[in-house]
Amino acid sequence: MKPKTSDPKIERLRSVPGLAGTSDKELVRLLPYVDEAELAAGHVLMEEGKPGREAFVIVEGEAEVALQGSVVTRLGPGELIGEMALLDHSPRSATVTAATPMRVLVLDPVGFRSILRTPSVATGMATGLAKRLRDIEGAPTYETPGGR
Predict the structure, then answer these.
(1) What element of type H or E holds 46?
(2) How far apart are CA 1 and CA 15, in angstroms?
(3) What is the pLDDT of residue 5?
(4) Fewer CB in 10 Å around end: N or C, the chain?
């Protein structure tokens, strides 16, 4: 079995839920669509009600998610944010602000669509969205055999 690449950008992509099992070849194909950015604490990544033009993967640091001005959760490394607006072309559903200095991967719409073409990624993203919605709503969840 060939060892996985040591390219830092590919390793950061692999940290995204749903991309962990993706081949190096597929991840290399995505590199042109992914930029990296460093953000200061307090930087607003997206504003509720505004158009969405990118999605972000948190590499380092934490972000606060607020709905109608109230913080509802805090996200950290490996979390994908901003994908909902790219999925349904609707305004941002929340405001996300860097709670600490952050390093993020930025996916433009073309890169985002490219990532979605991998079935395991689409499934992982749908599962992550469902979990976030359940958490926000306080909906019940159930453990199944194998922890999935």
Answers:
(1) strand 44-46
(2) 20
(3) 52
(4) N
Straight-line distance from the first to the last Cα atom of the chain, in angstroms, rounded to the nearest whole number: 27
Residues 132-141: tens digit of each pLDDT: 777 767 767 6
Of 7, 8, 10, 36, the residue nearest 23 (C-alpha): 10
Query: Cα separation of 43 and 101, whole Å?
Result: 9
The residues facing 106 across adjacent strands are 35, 56
pLDDT attached to residue 120: 67
Q: Which residue has the tokens 């597929």?
A: 26
**Nearest residue to 106 (alpha-carbon basis) of 30, 47, 50, 40:** 30
Q: Which domains does the chain have, with CATH numbers?
A: 8-137 (2.60.120.10)
